[in-house]
Structure formats: C-alpha cells, structure tokens
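Board notes (copied after class):
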Amino acid sequence: MIKPALRDEILLKIEKPVRYLGNEVNMVKKDPTNVDIRFAMCFPDLYEIGMSHLGIQIIYDMLNRRDDIYCERVYSPGLDLDKILREENIPLFSLETQEPVKNFDFLGITLQYEMCYTNVLQILELSQIPLLAKDRDDDMPIVIGGGPCVYNPEPVADFFDIFYIGEGETRYYQMMDLYKKCKSEGLGRKEILKKIAEEIPGMYVPALYEVTYNEDGTISSFEPIYDTVPSKVKKEIEWNMSDTFYPEKPLVPFIKATQDRVVLEIQRGCIRGCRFCQAGMIYRPVRERNVEFLKKLAVSMLESTGHEEISLSSLSSSDYSQLKELVYFLIDEVRTKGVNISLPSLRIDAFSLDVMSKVQDIKKSSLTFAPEAGSQRLRNVINKGLTEEIILNGAAEAFRGGWNKVKLYFMLGLPTETEEDMEEIAILSDKIARLYYDTVPKEERHGKAQITASTSFFIPKPFTPFQWARMYDKEDYIGKARVVNAKMKSMLNHKSLKYNWHEADVTVLEGVMARGDRRVSKVILEAYRLGCMFDAWSESFSNDKWMQAFENTGISIDFYNKRERDLDEILPWDFIDAGVTKEFLKREWKRALEEKVTPNCRAACANCGLKPLGGAICNER
C-alpha cells in the first residue's frame, strides 16, 4: 500500500485532490526497489492538460516496458497546493509512488509551449532541485527537456542538463543503458553528461557549449568546449511508424481531461510546406502508420480505456493516403458501440463532409476552415496552398449538407501584410455568410448563418522560412485587430459575423522566448521570482510582472522582436540540424517575398534537405 504524500487535511483543502493521487486505470505499478533507474516524466501544467498529451503517454509506455526502469509522472500543482507545499516544506512528488522527485535519477520535462517556462521553474523549486543546472550536485536528478520548444532551447538552457532533440522513441533506451554503465563505473554528474553528449545522437548538453556576442548583441560564435562533443546536434527521427512504441493501454484520468478520448496518431509530418508552420518543418518528412496497425490499435485502446471518443491525430489528416479505409472501418467498428469519431485537420471536401455527416450532429456542430490570411496574395506569401475558390466551394458544399456554423482562423502580423490584407479577412467572412443565404433555400435553413472569424498574431518560429521576420509591439497588434473589427461591422451580413482576437501581450512575450538566446533565461528567472506562473492561463498571466522582469534585467524586447534578422546572422538555434537546411529556408523566405507558391511534397520535391536521408514520402517519387 502506497502512502499518499499529502495528509487528508491537505487533500480536503485543495481543489481537485484526485490530481495528486495517481492509481488511475492502466497506471503502471512496479516495486521501485527492484529497478535500476527512476524516471519522473513531467508536463509543466495542470494534471488535466498533461494527461491529454500523447507524447508523454508514448514515453511512459516505452520506458515502463523495461523491467529495470520505472517511469512515473509529475504535473504542476495548482496554486492552492503550491502554497501549501512551500509553507510546509513538502517536496513535489510523483503520482505512482508518491515519492519526492528529487530522489529520482532523471526528471524529463516536455516543453510544448513557451508560456510554460516559469512552470518549469516551479517544478524544479518545489522538487527542491536547484533552478540553475550549474548548481546541481551528483545527488540531484538529471533534468532533460524535450518537445517542440527544444528546437530553440537557449532561453531555458541554464535550467536544463540535457535537451533531447527530436522524437523520443529512438534514443531513450540507449541513454538509459549508458547511464547505468557510467554509474557502475562510479562516474559523477559532469562525466555522465559529457559521455551522453559524445556518444548519443540528438543530445544537447548546454554546459558543454560556449556562446560569445558581438557589440550589437548578435551572436559572434557558438562552439563546443571539447573537440569530442559535436558542433551540430542532429534531430532524431523515428522512421518506422508501424513498428515502434505506442500505448495499447493508455492512462485514463480520474477527472475530465482537456482531451478525454483515445488519440490515434495516423501519421507524423506534413506535406504542405506552410511557411509559418514550425510543426510542418520540424516533423518532416511525412511518415504514415500502416492502416492495419491503426485498426488494431484503435480497437485495443478503446477496449482498454472505456473512452467514448477516438480522435485521429495528424497535422493534415486529409493527406493520409489510407484515410478512407480507416475512417469507414471506424464507422463500422465503433460507431455501432456508441463511440464518437473526431476528425480534426481535415480539408473540407466531398469525402470529409460525407464522413462528418455520419459522425457529427450537424445541427450542433460547426465546420472549421483555416485560410490563415484573408487575401489570395497573402495566402501565396505564406504558401497556404488554398485558393478563395476552394474555400467558397467547400463552404457551399457544407451549407448544402446542412451546416450553418463555420469557424475561420486567420493570422495578423504576417510578413508583407498590408491594411488591405487585414480588411480581406472581413470581406472573405462576409462572402461565406452571403453564400449561405444564396445557396440554401429559406425553408431548408437551420436558422441564420453563424460565421466566427478568429485571429491570432503571427509569431516567427525557428526552422521556418519566416524565422528572420520581424514582429510588432502590443499597440501595433491591437491596431491590426481594430482594422479587421471595423471592417467586420461595415459588412452587409455583419449580424451573421462574429470576430475574436488573441491577446497581444502574450504574443510579444512568446516571440521573445521563441527566438531568444541564453540571455533571456535571466528574464524568465526574474519573472518567476516576481510571481509569474501558469502564464498560458489568462487568469494567472501578469503582463506587468513580465515587463518589470525585462526592466530589472536590462533585456530589450525590441532587440528580439522588432528587427528583421540578417540572413547571414548566427541564430541561437543554428547548432541544431533539424533536417531542413538553412539554404532551403532562405529560398522559401525569398519566394515568400516574391509571392511565389511552392508545391507540396507529393506534387514536387522542393529539396528541403531530408530526401538524402531516405525513407517515408521522400521515396515515393
């Protein structure tokens, strides 16, 4: 019987105490005294968010398949428990054994979005692990970062011992074996980290690299301290997506998670090449999972969890070559058992509408389009590969099929954007609303059209063709949103239109942390000391504290955001080989400025750099 880390009187005081108890359906139980390695896997946000993340489920399953490893979980405690842990000096603990995280061999933290960085510091401090990697001794866990944010790990480099660059299925076993060997030889922390950097691909140990700066603040050099450590860290790719780790018995949360369903990843990567999309670049090339493998997984995961919904996960599900076979199998196999099928990231075409009419309540559901830009000119700049004709035809088909609610997603602040481009967001929304009334006879309508347009503010991300682009300040972004809002109100069908926009202050901060260098860690540390946590949650976010942190540390937001970067400048993430070459990204940046469209990977190879590696879609042609 495992003794809970929290006393009953504490559990009675806090919100949703079940977040901290573990013992969920499909939780792995081992005797921690009979394993060689204890690994705490952390999602630095609330339990409900972390339990929805597929990546952690995959790593949890993979590591626990070995008898010599016990992988356990830890999430950010809510602010109520955070206060109690500090007051009573209770160290943060794992869910499986309720033991302090500081006693583990490894603490693995997934970095899914930049606004969780202060929560990383919360996890470390509550675990009683020194915040700065340089201050940790041999008794402390090795802190590893993974996830999409590690494609520029520099803003949080001071807080981590290692970053795992790439996909987690490939090197963890090798790292664990090396760690065991080093421990048996009596090596200390620094020697182990150096061995990992030298011997295992994809591992970046920040302490083994030195950065120097020019007088203007740009990077002068970024070099390893030892000749035995690679100057370029190459991302890890899992090539065989149908013969790799995937949890047939995923963990089932006790309380409703953000995504309370079975998640079936049908493929990894995207053929589309949108120039703003980091995921589309860093997860290249496209690798599909075999349809028979997916059918078997779907059935076993639903049986082992009892979930009543299954979601097909992909950056662009419509591009999965065996989608029809898979979807019709699921309709036949699971719809009869009362299981809902969720199909995100589909293009709106005849097949998609046919399927959605079978699996959705049309009267209640809305269809989602992501034109990203209002004008065709700007859609060409971002290489969206979507014409107005395709958008309107899709909307017309949907209206004829019985839908009357449409959600549209756009970005403001894209490179080369003009006021006319902004106004085109409202004009396109109005055209879609008008199409409803022109397409559907009055007696067949389900009420009036409901067109909701939402805009986020564009953030240039590493390893995209837009990584050199400038950003704007809060006032500029709000001004852009006001242009769209004013145009919306002037539209003929404005009563059918609704407009939402994202918070501009969060965008500014995310931009600094997405493309910052090591100096930004001082700001993150200062913001945390000022009380910043759960910055991705609007009710917790404090822009004033963040602005104070920049002022206290003397770090300039404008240096990172408001200048267009030189094509020959050393970027903080240039030491990473993400597969796509810098030459390809430069070509795409220039093509964007020339408003030229690049065909998708199935139509023509754009020589992004991955084809020489072989495998996946690169070998289809």
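Comment from the instructor: Residues 8-234 form one domain. The mean pLDDT is 95.
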